[in-house]
Specification:
16 helices; mainly alpha
Length: 446
C-alpha cells in the first residue's frame, strides 16, 4: 500500500509541475506568455492534480478533527478561486466607483457570484446525484437506495448534514432581502459572516468521529504518527490550495477567451464559464469521493460549499468593495442583478426543499438540472435575439424565480413533517454543542 500511495501522490504532484515551472520561469522573466490553449491545458492539469491532493488531505484529517470541519475546510479551499475572481471585480467596482467601469465591475461581481451559486446546485448537486446512482459499482454504495418506479432511485444523505441544511435555509431567506437594500451592505456582511462563524463554532464542538474505513492514499497517511500526520495534512492543504488559487483564474480567463473567439458574449462568459471553471476543483473532489463509494462525504462537501459561498462570499464582497473605494460603501448593482439574486435564492430554496427528507431522487436531480439549463439557454437565446418572447431578460429571471418558489413551497408543504423533524434535530445539535461547552466550563472551575 505504501508504494502505491506514494506513486499516486507523486503522479498528482506531477500534474502541477508544468504550471509551477511556468509560474516560476515567468516571474523570473525567462519565458513569455503562453498561448490561450496552452494556458488552459497547463493550468487545467494543475487544478486536476491539486484537487486530488486536496481530497486526500481532507480524508486524512477526519482522523483528528470532526468530519464536518474537515469538509468545511475542503470546501473553502476548493472554492477559493471563486472568491479571488469575485474579489477582483468587487475591488475594481470600488476603485472606479461613480464611473461606467465601476458600475460594470459591480454588476460582474454579483453576476459571477450568482452564476457560481446556481452552477453549484444546477450542475453540482444534480450532476453528482445522477453520477452517484448511475456510475459503475453504485450497487456497492450504501448511500444509493433502489426504489420501484421510473427514475425513483435515490441518494440518501447523512442526517448529520441537517445543521448545514438549516443554516443554508437561513442564509437563503436572508438573500431574498438583499436586493431591497439597493446593494450588499454592512448589515448583510454582519449577518451572513456571523452565521457562518456560528456554524463553524458549532461543528468544532462536535466529537471526532471514528474515521470511516478509508482505502488508498488516505488509509496510508492515517497510519502516520499524529505529529507527522497533521504536518502532512497541512502541507497537502497548503500546496493544493496554492495551486488551485493561482491556476484557476488563468484557467477561467483562458476559457473565457476561447468562448469569445466563437462568439459568446463576454458578460455571459463571466457569469457562467468563469464560475464553471472555478468550481471545477470542487466537482473533481466530489466525483472522486463518490467514485470511492463515499457519496455521503461528497454531498456533505457540496452542501458545505454552497453554505460558505452563500454566506462568506456574499458577506465579504462589501469589505473588498470598501477597500477599493477607500472608505465604507455598499456594493451597488443594477436591476438585472437584483433579478439574478432573487433567482439564485429561489433555486436554493427549491433545492433545500428537496433535501429536507435527506435524500435526492433521480427525478429531482433531473428537474434541478433541466430547470438550470432551461434558464441559462433561454437567457442566452434571448440576449442573442434568437428567442422571440414578450419578456425582457429581467422578467425572464423573475419568471424562473417564481417557478422555483412555487415548486419549493409545494415541496415544503408536502414534507412539512420532515422539515419539523429537521429543525428539531438541528436545535438539538446546537443545544448539545453549547451544553457541552457549559459543562466543560463548569468542570474547569471546580
Amino acid at each position: 500500500m505504501r508504494r502505491r500511495s506514494l506513486t499516486a501522490i507523486a503522479l498528482a504532484v506531477a500534474l502541477t509541475v508544468p504550471w509551477v515551472g511556468y509560474s516560476i520561469a515567468s516571474t523570473l522573466g525567462l519565458v513569455g506568455h503562453l498561448g490561450t490553449l496552452s494556458t488552459v491545458a497547463v493550468s487545467g492539469l494543475s487544478v486536476l492534480g491539486a484537487s486530488f491532493l486536496l481530497a486526500w488531505g481532507a480524508e486524512t484529517a477526519e482522523k483528528d478533527v470532526p468530519r464536518a470541519f474537515a469538509i468545511a475546510v475542503l470546501a473553502v479551499l476548493a472554492v477559493a478561486p471563486e472568491y479571488a475572481v469575485d474579489a477582483l471585480y468587487a475591488f475594481n467596482a470600488g476603485q472606479f466607483a461613480g464611473t461606467p467601469r465601476g458600475a460594470e465591475a459591480g454588476n460582474l461581481a454579483v453576476a459571477n457570484m450568482t452564476g457560481a451559486n446556481r452552477i453549484l446546485i444546477g450542475i453540482g448537486w444534480a450532476g453528482i446525484a445522477l453520477f452517484t446512482i448511475f456510475r459503475s459499482g453504485a450497487d456497492d454504495d450504501p448511500a444509493v437506495e433502489k426504489r420501484s418506479g421510473i427514475l425513483n432511485d435515490v441518494v440518501t444523505l447523512d442526517r448529520d448534514i441537517g445543521l448545514e441544511i438549516v443554516f443554508l435555509l437561513i442564509a437563503t431567506l436572508w438573500a431574498f432581502l438583499v436586493p431591497f437594500n439597493g446593494g450588499i451592505d454592512i448589515i448583510d456582511m454582519l449577518f451572513l459572516v456571523g452565521l457562518y462563524v456560528a456554524y463553524i463554532v458549532i461543528i468544532l464542538k462536535g466529537d471526532v468521529e471514528e474515521p470511516e474505513a478509508h482505502v488508498g492514499v488516505p488509509a496510508y497517511l492515517q497510519q502516520y504518527p499524529k505529529p507527522k500526520r497533521v504536518a502532512t495534512v497541512l502541507a497537502l492543504f497548503a500546496f493544493s490550495g496554492t495551486m488551485i488559487f493561482t491556476a484557476v483564474e488563468p484557467f477561467a480567463h483562458g476559457l473565457e477567451s476561447l468562448g469569445q473567439n466563437i462568439g459568446i458574449p463576454a458578460f455571459f462568459m463571466i457569469q457562467w464559464v468563469a464560475p464553471l471553471a472555478s468550481e471545477s476543483p470542487e466537482l473533481i473532489v466530489v466525483a472522486y469521493l463518490v467514485n470511492k463509494a463515499r457519496s455521503t462525504a461528497g454531498f456533505n462537501a457540496l452542501i458545505s460549499s454552497k453554505l460558505n459561498q452563500w454566506t462568506l462570499l456574499i458577506g465579504t464582497l462589501v469589505v473588498v468593495y470598501s477597500i477599493g473605494l477607500g472608505q465604507y460603501g455598499a456594493l451597488p448593482f443594477d436591476q438585472k442583478q437584483q433579478g439574478e439574486i432573487w433567482l439564485t435564492a429561489a433555486q436554493s430554496f427549491f433545492a433545500i426543499a428537496i433535501l429536507v427528507n435527506f435524500n435526492i431522487s433521480v427525478r429531482e436531480a433531473l428537474l434541478l438540472l433541466v430547470l438550470f439549463l432551461a434558464q441559462v439557454v433561454s437567457e442566452f437565446l434571448l440576449i442573442r435575439g434568437v428567442l422571440d418572447i414578450p419578456l425582457s431578460d429581467y422578467q425572464l429571471l423573475l419568471a424562473f424565480a417564481v417557478l422555483y418558489m412555487v415548486l419549493g413551497t409545494a415541496l415544503f408543504v408536502a414534507r412539512r413533517k420532515s422539515f419539523v423533524r429537521l429543525v428539531r434535530r438541528t436545535a438539538g445539535t446546537i443545544g448539545d454543542a453549547f451544553s457541552e461547552r457549559a459543562n466543560a466550563a463548569e468542570s474547569g472551575s471546580d
